[in-house]
Structures are given as C-alpha cells and as structure tokens.
Amino acid sequence: MRTENQEFTFTKLMTCGLCGSGVSASEKWKKQNNGNVHRYVYYGCTKAKDKHCKCGYIEEKEIINQFVGLMDKVSFDDNSIQQKIKSEVERIKKFNNIMLGIKEKIEVKDLDIKNYAKYILKEGTEVEKRELLGCLKTSIFLANKSISIKPQ
Ligand SMILES: [Zn+2]
After folding, report:
1. How many A from CA of 88 to the centre of ligand 1?
2. Helix and strand tally (H, E) in the chain?
C-alpha cells in the first residue's frame, strides 16, 4: 500500500558521485500484460548542487544486486553490526547443528558474516537493510547507473 510520507531504503545512504548532491527516490507503478501492477523504485541525483547533473536513474532492484556484489569488498563496524550479525549467525548454526545432530563447536567466520549481509540485502526488511548499510565504513556514491564505495 502507498503511504503519504513514504521512506525509501537507500536515499540517505548515498551521494551523487558526479556533483555531490544528495540522492532521492521516486516510485512508478506499471501495469503488466497479465494485469498485475508492479512497483518500481528509481533513485537519482537531487540536482541540488548541479542543475544539469547527468547522474541518471537506477532501479532499486539493481542497487540491491550491486550492493550484494560489493559485500565482498567492504568492512563492517566491528563494535555494532558485526557483533549483531555474529550472534545471529551463531544462532542459525546452532539450530542447524541440532537439526543435523552435529556436536561441534560453533565458529563464525568472516565469510559467514558477509553471506549473512547478502541475505539481509535480499530478504531483510527496509530497516534491516538500512541498518546494515549504515554501519559500513564506507561512503556510497551513485553515478551512471552504478554504485561505488570509498573507504571513509
Ligand atoms: Zn548529481
């Protein structure tokens, strides 16, 4: 359902890579051939700093795909999100071990954390995604239909 003061997942996390303005989002509804109506969310430069910015627009689904690809390159804030993800992964592993009857020590590797981050990006709630990306030690830029990150 559409709400009046809707928030978009990624707007506050990104900056235009061409002119340094903020990023805003808009939604469009398209009717498909089978009669279903599909929601698309597009992100683009607010053009606050450059009225003629050529940043272009990118669909939210594509942003998520690109973030998933970037997860292998980023580092997370050790104190907050990493601990949270770690305990969540531990919980899942414990459950798996019980189901499979395995009695070994639970170990959470860096790879587990990155895989869990990818899972959140694909399946998590808006709040979970924002929380995750907000904890990255990087700045996120949008330009020419692609996301790039720079260490802060
Ligand atoms: Zn721009």
Report:
1. 38
2. 4, 6
